[in-house]
Write a structure and sequence with these properties.
Helices cover 34% and strands 20% of the residues. The chain is α/β, with parallel strands linked by helices and 294 residues long. It has 2 domains: 125 residues, 2-Layer Sandwich (Nucleotidyltransferase, domain 5); 151 residues, 2-Layer Sandwich (Nucleotidyltransferase, domain 5), CATH 3.30.420.40. Helix 7 links the parallel strand 9 and strand 10. The longest helix has 22 residues. The structure holds zinc ion. Zinc ion binds next to helix 4. The site of zinc ion has 7 residues, from helix 4.
Length: 294
């Protein structure tokens, strides 16, 4: 039975894994994300060596930082596009792993983590799950019946425009495109720009302000996707009191309109179940899907 090769490609590290066809992990390692001329050959060497020792790899699944082309119908599928990370624009996973000549599925890191949570974490049993990370950036992956949902490209939920009261929050936001979009107001760097400290050291009023912006996204996700559950992870979400305030403000913003979300939301809006393993779990599933689709 062929093995699955999985990659969670992050901005600071790559997690590489081999799994059996049922998803059981066989081996994993991590390498630093450096220049692609260094990191991508290192990645290929790991899989080459592992294949020689453990058996043939039948497919790859990649959950990657971006921006990256994730449209299987596009000639650039699997290629980094306008990433500011030096050297990575134009790098392509299919080229880096061409020697294996096996099917590959490439998706975003957040869609990968969403898939991992759906299968083995806090999204188990859901038909539709929305997984959002609030950290250096903000992004959402929506998984419906086991498949990440996208348009011609991945969603960009971090750039919706929450309502900002300039008297309450004079900070104009740090998004280079929009200023005070959600990411510009509520990502980790925006919080430090505004107050000089991160949200774990913030007052309850400051936590409530950020929770209110994130609640705009949560309410929008409910209205657009009717998910059974919303998972919120990432460094910012670890701030004490944030999750409770997010639940209360999401309920308030929905105003009783969606009965399923007109309760305390402790089982509707939840923390991730897999912690740091969500991404690689999703990448293994992408490989399994690539293998079964041929
Ligand atoms: Zn923006």
């Amino acid at each position: 039975m062929a093995l699955l090769g999985a990659v969670e490609a992050g901005g600071t590290k790559f997690v590489l894994a081999l799994a059996r066809a049922d998803g059981t992990l066989v081996e994993r390692t991590r390498i630093d994300t450096a220049h692609p001329d260094e990191t991508l050959p290192q990645m290929a060497a790991f899989f080459r060596e592992a294949q020689a020792r453990l058996g043939a790899i039948g497919a790859f699944g990649i959950a990657s930082f971006g921006p990256i082309d994730i449209d299987p119908a596009s000639p650039g599928y699997g290629t980094f596009t306008t990433t500011p990370k030096p050297g990575w624009s134009g790098a392509r996973f299919q080229d880096a792993l061409a020697e294996f000549a096996v099917p590959m599925r490439v998706d975003t890191d957040v869609n990968g983590a969403a898939l991992g949570e759906y299968l083995a974490g806090a999204g188990q049993g859901c038909s539709t799950l929305a997984y959002t990370t609030v950290g250096t950036g903000i992004g959402t992956g929506v998984v419906k019946h086991g498949q990440p949902v996208t348009g011609f490209s991945h969603y960009e939920s971090g750039h919706i425009r929450p309502r900002r009261d300039a008297a309450l929050d004079p900070f104009e936001g740090c998004c280079p495109y929009h200023g005070d979009c959600l990411e510009g107001l509520a990502c980790g760097p925006a919080i430090i720009d505004r107050w000089g400290h991160d949200l774990s050291e913030a007052s309850p009023e400051q936590v409530a302000l950020i929770a209110g912006y994130i609640a705009d996204l949560a309410a929008s996700l409910v209205l657009l996707h009717m998910p059974d559950r919303l998972v919120f992870g990432g460094g910012v979400m670890k701030a004490p009191g944030l999750m409770d305030s997010l639940r209360a403000q999401t309920r308030a913003k929905l105003g009783g309109y969606i009965p399923a979300y007109d309760e305390d939301l402790s089982t509707r809006i939840v923390e991730p179940g897999l912690g740091d393993d969500a991404g690689i779990t999703g990448a293994i599933e992408l490989a399994r899907q690539a293998l079964s689709e041929g």
